[in-house]
Amino acid sequence: MSKILIRGAKVLGGETRDVLIDGETIAEVGTDLEAGDATVVEAAGQILLPGLVDLHTHLREPGREDSETVLTGTRAAAVGGFTAVHAMANTFPVADTAGVVEQVYRLGKESGYCDVQPIGAVTVGLEGKKLAELGAMHDSAAGVKVFSDDGKCVDDAVIMRRALEYVKAFDGVVAQHAQEPRLTEGAQMNEGIVSAELGLGGWPAVAEESIIARDVLLAAHVGSRVHICHLSTAGSVEIVRWAKSKGWNVTAEVTPHHLLLTDDLVRTYNPVYKVNPPLRTEADVLALREALADGTIDCVATDHAPHPHEDKDCEWAAAAMGMVGLETALSVVQQTMVDTGLLDWAAVADRMSFRPAQIGRLDGHGRPVSAGEPANLTLVDPAYRGLVDPAGFASRSRNTPYQGRELPGRVTHTFLRGRATVVDGKLA
Ligand code: DOR
Ligand code: ZN
Ligand code: ZN
Known about the structure:
This protein is of the alpha/beta class. It folds into two domains: 3-47 and 373-427, Urease, subunit C, domain 1 (Roll); 52-359, Alpha-Beta Barrel (TIM Barrel). It contains twelve helices and 19 strands.
């Protein structure tokens, strides 16, 4: 069994420690550990985090392998410091049966770069009409616990109620893409000053907030767990804060792009900024940062949404919605949350590893960096500065809004159960 000694990294209390990995496990955390026959990774000045966990990744396989595959998506995840991702169900065919979720699960096992936990669709074909086979997906080898029609909102209140009732039996959770469809017909961007100036159809905040309000009430009524995907407005934060104050089982995520970018960027008409939910205002961005800092928003989730250039390099109205995010997520969180003093690295571990694993009830991930735990680890150099170059992405797609931007920090090493998937910032 191979041994690795990570020497002199900062661990989450801020102390400097050596970490010895033996096989798949953290054998020892201490000072001045003997290297012996271990491979040494010099980590002075670097932060050692538990392997990151993404609750919201679009891997596109099966069906859209021109955008991403499980292999290319898990490579991108490893480069971004992730050791586990939850794969969204809006594939072709939709992941609405035990057969499809098992296929994705198996492809994840074969990839070897990052664990893949499939998410199951809530309704057949994401059509919002008929509940999918939630129980069969849960009982399958994929062990699905998170269900979502992401890309679409479960807008029928009765279907949402039934889904919440159903998943309660096995402590599952429904992850809602909150978008009232009638209020967003023809919408192209956030509804506000910029949409009025550009004459583009607006996507009002209330379309998101009204569904969140309904769903936290439904979750409370049923006594079940609901998770809200990609919160994007200050009003959504207020509703989640209120629901949590009632003690209801409500969790929420925010994407890196909603922590950094605003709808002002749509003035460029560059479709790289077209995303669902849309980029909002500066006031929304600040409210989201504050909510992630105070724990109202539980976690960061990438909503990594790869699209081929034909679907993005076109006029705004015709372009697909979504951005890749796995390979830049931690840097954007460092810039918006750490370098601003809103979160320390221990809190980043909480929001990007512990809590997403907890929400997904994912075993073996989101564990403390201590002896006896699985060696799922991410080493980050926070002093690094570099320009984002999508040509170097491991993802099959290039639709990043950060091309040419300087972002801080870099994942130097990722370890999946003791095996290096990334070494010196490159895929192993
Ligand atoms: O921007 C988005 N892209 N939002 C979604 O909800 C779906 C996603 C996708 O699948 O491309
Ligand atoms: Zn979504
Ligand atoms: Zn999504």
